[in-house]
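name: query_chain
kind: protein
chains: 1
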Amino acid sequence: MELVNTNEILQKLLYCLQNKKPISLVRYGDGEAIILNGYKDVESLKAVYKRQFGFTPNLDEIDSIRMNLISAYQNCDIIGSPLGKKVKDGDQSFWARSLEILKLEAGLDVLNTDKINVSIDIHSHFLDKDYYNTLMINTKTINYISCRDLDEQLKRRYPNRVINRFLISPEAKFSTNTTGQKHYPDQFLAIEKWMDRAINCEGALCLVGAGVVGKIYCNWFRDRGGVAMDVGSIMDSWSGYQTRGVDRGMNVIDLTHKL
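structure:
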């Protein structure tokens, strides 16, 4: 199975925005593979949660997060995965085994599915090609979930748009900022109520940068009529921070893509 190219995905999302057709795009990588793999590698599991939260959730929360992640991939419309990535013989990293784990733990084989398959790097490709700008000028409402407050920048660049934001606690490894609440379960439980009571999702562009816990948010937006995309660390780039790549780190400034 071949990956659908980036421009085709842009055109599909534009069509969905213009015709109010709900859709969700969720990405899957090695961090998510570790979560799905569960207690088979406890140390790796703890490391992911420490990076995300700064602590390890209790066992019930770990199980709940895993089940929500499975639901996110089973029920999304477009999945961004390492399909097509070259893997060296003998590589037993989670990156190399991610598709195998997805098939085993979520019952989802990206080689045999009716989902649209795209590169896990599609969020970066959209940034490089300025496709997010194309999406934003073709919508009246932008809803987003992030640890970065982008309201001022978005309102300045896209006037006359309705901007709705749910601010979550940041990934502990890359920011010292905090909302005072835990992303999971506190904010996680509040986000569905926010979607139902405070905002309109129908025909809206809905962007999610919320780590492994937040993959399910794309489907929640879609189920309420939104055109939802998991953009991950792009929110950091728009805020002027570098949280990916060899030079990433705690509050590292990079203004290349700052809005």
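note: Residues 155 and 161 are 7 Å apart (CA to CA).
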